[in-house]
Amino acid sequence: MDAVWTAFIQDRSNFFLYGIVPSIVVTVSYLLGSLATWLIERSPSQKQYKIQRKVHGGATWGECFRHVFFHKLTSEIPLTFAGYPIFVWLGVSKDLPLPGIGTVLLTLVGCFLIEDAWHYMAHRSLHAKWAYAKIHHIHHKYTTPFGPAANFAHPIETFWTGFGTLLPVMILTPHLSTMLIWVVVRQWQAISVHVGFELPWRPSRFLPILGGARFHDVHHQKFTCNYAPTFIWWDRILGTVDGSSKPAIETPAPTKP
Fold it and tell me: Which terminus in the chain has less CB density within 10 A, N or C?
């Protein structure tokens, strides 16, 4: 693995490693996660696990992808390119030795803990009347979530809540390889809670501290609950948890907080 990593970083500029590579990695992760969602939705054996009856058609998927990639090209990727020196300045190392598996896993746990705390506060703030009307209502267009809609948001929301993905990197300064793993796992986790299926092999079935797809589905239906993306404790501590076993079916999109 060391030889592969050495060949990967050899003669590569910091702009390539810290700017271009993360942008490619997160975009490919989004596409692969969306593909997995599409395969699940089209699998007859998985229909029994669908949380809501509605299945989004090709037109909705196309609308979602056009929105996401327009903002990727006009804001997300340019900001990553412009901000790549931050990673170098923070000390995110690209050099050998690579971190061990234990270090990577421990770092990922830390990243999720930090991101979840930030995201809860940032997400809840977007449900303030002004912020919802101007920014967050875009993400709530789909009251029946589906995987690609995880990234369907106003660019300000993407920056505001997405800062939670950067924050643990700033605090923990992991190795570049770990940072890339983190952005992949975080993207897939975001898609998984929007997938719209309560699958039997979902992590939340085995770890009750995790919210999961049904937990977030309720948020898209009832609006003022279940703000956290990963864990349930912030919602429990701050009184915003709704443990409904089944969200309302096909209700209109909310228009105000």
Answer: N
pTM of this structure: 0.92
Cα–Cα dist 188/151, whole Å: 11
Per-domain residue ranges of the chain: 2-237
In the predicted structure, residue 249 carries a pLDDT above the cut 50: no
Give pLDDT tens digits for 55-71.
889 999 999 999 999 99
Alpha-carbon distances of 86 from 8, 18, 58, 207, rounded to whole Å:
21, 9, 39, 35
| pLDDT band, residue 255 (cuts 50/70/90) | very low
Using DSSP's 3-state secondary structure scheme, residue 253 falls into coil
Q: Which two tokens stand for residue 8?
A: 């990967």
**d(C-alpha 241, C-alpha 219), whole Å:** 9
Q: Are 172 and 111 in contact (CB under 8 A)?
A: yes
Cβ count near 129 (within 10 Å)? 9
